[in-house]
Specification:
The structure is a single chain. The protein is an alpha/beta fold and about 375 residues long. Helix content is about 25%, strand content about 25%. It has eleven helices and 18 strands. It has helices at about 5-15, 55-60, 85-90, 110-120, 130-135, 140-145, 175-185, 195-200, 255-260, 280-285, 300-305, and strands spanning about 30-35, 40-45, 70-75, 95-100, 125, 150-160, 160-165, 190-195, 220, 245, 265, 270, 275, 290-295, 315-320, 330, 345-355, 355-364. The strands form four sheets. Strands 11-10-9-8-14-6-15-18-17 form a nine-stranded mixed sheet, sandwiched between helices. A five-stranded mixed sheet has the order 2-1-3-4-5, with helices on both faces. A two-stranded antiparallel ribbon has the order 7-16. The longest helix is centred in the N-terminal third of the chain and has 14 residues, at about 5-15. It is elongated, with a radius of gyration of 23 Å.
Amino acid sequence: MTSQDAHFMKRALELAELGRGKAHPNPLVGAVLVKRGKIIGEGAHERYGQSHAEVNAIFSCKADPKGATLYVNLEPCAHFGKTPPCTDLILASKLRRVVVGMKDPNRFVAGRGLKVLKKAGVEVDCGVLEDEARELNRDYCHWVVHQRPYVIVKAAQSLDGKIATSTGDSKWITEKKSRIFSHELRASSDAILVGVNTILKDDPRLDTRLASIQRYPVKVVLDSFLRTPSKARIFSKTSRNRVVLVTTKRAPQKQWTRLEKKAEIMLVPEKKKGFIDWNALLGELGSRGIVNLLIEGGGEVIGSAIREKIVHEMVVFVAPKIIGGKSSISAVGGEGIQFLKEAANLRDLKAEPIGGDLLLRGRF
């Protein structure tokens, strides 16, 4: 890898971000065309179902692409999907070299694109800034390999780990800047999940209230007995988000009939009495094209998800407030652990100020 290769691949990774929140379930991909050391074309896969990054880069060219080098963070496709194979246009454009960040783990690609290009005489280099390329599409890579969503838990808490007072008051623990960032996190997710207790206590809309982002994640509610009120704000007529109520065989038929016109009702097995089987749920969501899932609470749901080891990443907004009180509500509920050696540990922990709050982010 040369310094020039790294430079132009970084630009491809930057362009790939243009598709965040819009390209799912497809990966984030950016492409740069370079000739005689200068960029002559750029592109990104900006929206699902539309042209891929390589196509947009070639069609944006300000000069003849013949003999140019293409930099792209993910292997070009060689199969028909929503759009024709990118390898066809690459070969028709007579590009001399293609530099790739990583192979596509999708079984329909998985090295085929690289083989097609090599067989046609194109010089191919793969693995340039591979770690950065994998990090960019970590959720997509997990989904295509395991057919389950990449799971992020988000919590907003006081310095002493509380998400609400003993009376249930929780608005607002964090500052406005943190709440805006939280909505951006929602907008980059395919689905937002909460437990029914959060619906009963807080009655949230679970929308992405950002005018600049037109994104409508699926609203998922864990509701083993279908207790969600038919007038809950998640069913707001102004909301375009689809609602999925996840329930068990214990849900009364009367409740089922009451809610089936309001939402999709998803029946999943129980792990134990009254508690859904997380693995079964993730399999169902993955089969529906949910690439990443944001769990927002409450404490019992978060505790259960962490205990079942289905969480990949945790994002915590910490406000410089002390709430205190034995009966105040904690960010992570459930039975907890008996010994510290059983604790779930985060790695790659990052901390940054966001307004007067602190944003902590790490992986399990």
